[in-house]
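Dear support,

I submitted the protein below through the web form. The confirmation email said the job was done, but the results page showed an empty box. After a refresh the structure appeared. I'm attaching both so you can tell me whether what I see now is the final result or a partial one.
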Amino acid sequence: MSVALLTLLLVMVVAMLLRTPIAFAMLAGGIAYLAVKGQDMGLAAEQVLNGLYNSYVLLAVPLFVLAANLMNAGTISERLFEFSRLLVGRMRGGLAQVDILVSVIFSGMSGSAIADAAGPGLVTIKQMLKKPEYTPGFAGAVVVASATIGPIIPPSIPMVIYALVSGTSVGALFLGGVVPGLLMALMLMLGVHLIATKRNMPKDDPIPLREVPGIVLRGILPLTLPVVLLTGIYTGAFTPTEAAAVAALHALILAGVVYRAFSPQALFAVTLESLRSSAVITLIIASAYLLNYAFAAEGVPALLAQWVASLNLSPLGFLLLVNALFLVLGCFLDVSVMLLVFVPMLIPAARLLGIDLVHFGVVVVVNMMIGLVTPPFGMLLFVTNALTGIPLKDMVREGLPFTALLIVALLLMTLFPQIVLWLPQTMGYVTGK
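What the results page shows now:
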């Protein structure tokens, strides 16, 4: 390892330990690298600006963030909750099952795990805590676990970022996430059923028949968004990037015009919050371009590919190694950092072993979503704790079975690539081997 690269890592780690925002810690490391190498400091701005301005797909990120925030500001979460109660509320542990189904539906609209936890998740926690059979820890654990489905079923902000660094088709990645997302939901519903049966948790109260048509009518309009997005993308009416704009417009019309759920002042507040969130993501991406330049200049991706080749790993062995790596890193690092810094270094090795990059991308993103629920820095745990006051230790303890089930789902899609690739191959986005 060169002195310049060692300086980069040292400056970045020290900055993070001093609680400097991640983007600025990465930028500081990159600038320190240029200083030690004696290169022009203007190279930092060049790498950042070239990367951002040449990335059309990046436009999807702020628009999907805006769409999610618009839906959470309106009454869409509540409408989806009532609709899901109608479908699965009479199962054992009904409210927990409702939360998982709501997450599946909401994931087809937002592409963000945090938006899922902060919107529909908060609604279901409030309902569960009204019944003594649901402990606060259990309620929080179910919401945190089910929110991981959000970025797996399309649309997905992490998959857009992965497409940015890998050159993979966004449409293929979106299709690749459908079956894995449903598999994760099925595993979580099985877990809830087993726990609810053991603890004798109640079924939800029956819904009077006269209320059913109204619930269906109120819930059916939000369900049109995933249909519009996926139909538009896969018929060629618009690109996945343009789909983000369609999602934002659809959410604005639905929540603001049809439901009249917020005032112009509330719309301004939602837009401002979306700008803040998008700025954070964009700063991290910008800083990552500088780091990636440094790693590429030092030949790190090529060296890593050579090292993997020297291990004589099979494609499955490499994927299992990647799983182990990201499950550990996910306990400590932000998803954007892992996607933008570590994934580009692993892609050459994946190509060398003949691993389909759509399969690799979905597996990597699922890994990172599991990282959002694992201590000590599981972001979803902290978000749910901040919104509800449920102690972190209670959510971690109650969430262990759900985390285990998510890892089982991850292993299944690692062992059987067709779980990911069947739908993209069927739609002609991926050529079967």
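Response: this is the final, complete result; the empty box was a page-load delay. The radius of gyration is 22 Å.
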